[in-house]
Amino acid sequence: MNTYLAGDYNQYSTSVRQANSINVPKHLAFIPDGDRGWAQENGLKSWQGHEHGFKLIFNTIAPTAWDYGVHTFTTWLVSPASVEKRPKEQVEHLWRIGEDCITYCTDICEKYDARFCYFGRRDRMPETFFKKVKELDYATVDRERRYLNFGCDYSGVEDIVQAVQKVVEKQDVVSAKTIADNFYLNRTNQPYPDPDLVVRPGLKDVNTCRLSNFMLWQSCYAEFLFPKKYVPEVTVADVGEWMREYARSGRRLGA
Q1: All domains of the chain in start order, with CATH
Q2: Which residues of the chain carry a pLDDT beneath 70?
């Protein structure tokens, strides 16, 4: 059984039994935010907030989304801006938490027969972390039932730039299709590379909404939800509500 929060399971099990009656996103992208705010409110260190948040993402949020019928779940650990601007000690903690995340990913990929895909830069990852990423990527490469995408040192702007550079290097025609075909996540390694739903909790006390440089191109037709709570506060009931909100959205994809 997944790591459900106390009091949620009865509501969760009832909701999942009803899930086949609603239209759920094929690809859910989750932007984690609010770990530090939650830690501060609870008298903890920032890295402890990240630990709580990412454990919840991989042990509860992603499995619950899959149980509802979501095929692809995407999230990220850290952006280039965070690697470059945050204190060195905090970044080192994030990389260590990243290694814990790979352990969580290994467990849920095994349980859910999911393929693991890493996306983002690789040149600044610690060697031990990079080794674990490669091992899990290789071990799950033949799986197709579900996908788990984990971004590290990833930027939506850099993704577009590196894709254009690849197109130019190949002396191909620069077009929307050739650029999209060269993103980190694309049709060669993903059945559903573009998110249908993007969820970003964490903007709890401000009336703003932003993507913070995450999958900018790929999310152009996605639905967006900005729950007013921190990631460590998310419950399985919240995931169910996201599914229902998406079903009510009536996506038109520009039509």
Answers
A1: 45-249 (3.40.1180.10)
A2: 1-21, 204-207, 251-255
Name the pTM for this structure.
0.89
**Using H for helix, E for strand and C for coil, what is the string for the chain?**
CCCCCCCCHHHHHHHHHCHHHCCCCCEEEECCCCHHHHHHHCCCCHHHHHHHHHHHHHHHHHHHHHHHCCCEEEEECCCHHHHHHCCHHHHHHHHHHHHHHHHHHHHHHHHHCEEEEEECCCCCCCHHHHHHHHHHHHHCCCCCCEEEEEECCCCHHHHHHHHHHHHHHCCCCCCHHHHHCCCCCCCCCCCCCCCCEEECCCCCCCCCCCCCCCCCCCCCCCEEECCCCCHHHCCHHHHHHHHHHHHHHCCCCCC
